[in-house]
């Protein structure tokens, strides 16, 4: 694809700017000669149709939830209602200065306070911070809260370990380690759930807690969740639930009732605000009674219908984000909650689970399902055994030729050649059928024309890239040197 500099000709313009008028010389005189340009800037000179065509062509090279099915497991790429985008763009929010005193931004504080109340209700837990800007940031915040709790009990050098099932999301061990804990991996059993005997063996006075991804990255809900949390509490530890997969049980079960002491939301997944490209997101954290004293400041309090900032929390871990977090992401998520209501939220999780099981059912005769149980919001297939050395990467690349974004591949690590598929509740049945059809055709191609898969993608602007190099050595500057 050419750059905008490859189009146009000298003198062409896309817009007619008004003359600067008489003040030009006067204005120039105010700029010291040493700071003035000696030659004009190197700008593209294109007509409006050329400009529009160029950027429209570029935008068509993008793939997103607004262009097609995006079954990226663990990412919950659901449709983001446009109404919520509009609401978050309200100038009452976008034009607020973050340093305004509380009395001058009562509306924004009310929004944040109200969101906190809803999320505490959904989690069934008494405390919250809205500050974390992403799921992993919520995890780190949760681990810092746990560490402060351990410290406050005089057990800092004693309770040093966090238990982590091998089916946990990859950010979990990283967050525990960043907060200064050592990580002990727990194996899954044949059901794809925490091996209870291994858990009992690992528990002891040196364990600060467990971090569970619920449902886990196989898309399976821990049937023994109450036993697990009882065992950890019995050994004096606390339970962290990674709630990024809440889309599986939103409005149907509450982590607080299952024994969670710390729980993070990924608002940019479950509550339908755009996810991808690295943000911005929001990862609020709810906590049980025991951790209330350590929550970040400032908190938002309400008295006599007025909102204020609460700083008086001597044992707080402090701030984890400037101001109040990503407020506009929180605004979109609140709009989602208010639009759907209790029943709508319950329907969302029901739809997500139904879609995942429907799709799994269509694919399971052809693709291996290593842990074949009732799926929650997502399921994991293996691309192994399709024939002639075909790998999951080949399947993923070929899906692009059929017009679909590939699912997450090679994760979770406990499944060889994993394909992790999350359809979400916002796709109609025809789309699920078309995706299943493409997957089945690809499986047939793997047997009959394996080279089609090995050389895929065939229909994309660039063919198969060396992914590791593409990330480490991104080629952002074209040969002409125009795109810096
Ligand atoms: C289960 C799970 N936990 C944690 C995260 C981390 O969230 P984030 O990407 O917002 O940091 C993700 C990411 O999607 C996830 O799927």
Can you describe this structure?
With 484 residues, this protein is α/β, with parallel strands linked by helices. The protein is built from 15 helices and twelve strands. The chain has helices at 24-29, 48-60, 82-88, 91-94, 106-123, 135-152, 171-178, 196-202, 225-234, 267-270, 327-363, 392-401, 429-448, 450-454, 467-472; strands at residues 127-129, 161-165, 182-186, 207-213, 238-243, 262-265, 285-287, 299-303, 306-310, 379-382, 408-409, 418-421. It has a seven-stranded mixed sheet with strand order 1-7-6-5-4-2-3, with helices on both faces. The chain has a three-stranded antiparallel sheet with strand order 10-12-11, with helices on one face. A hairpin with a 2-residue loop joins strand 8 (299-303) and strand 9. It is globular. The structure holds pyridoxal-5'-phosphate.
Brief summary of the model shown:
The protein is α/β, with parallel strands linked by helices and 484 residues long. It is built from 15 helices and twelve strands.
Q: What is the CATH superfamily classification of the largest domain?
A: Type I PLP-dependent aspartate aminotransferase-like (Major domain)
What is the mean predicted local confidence, pLDDT? Answer: 94
Bound molecule types: pyridoxal-5'-phosphate
Q: How would you sum up the major sheet?
A: 7 strands, mixed
When the domains are counted, the total is 3
Shape call: globular
The ordered H/E elements are HHHHHEHEHEHEHEEHEEEHEHEEHHH
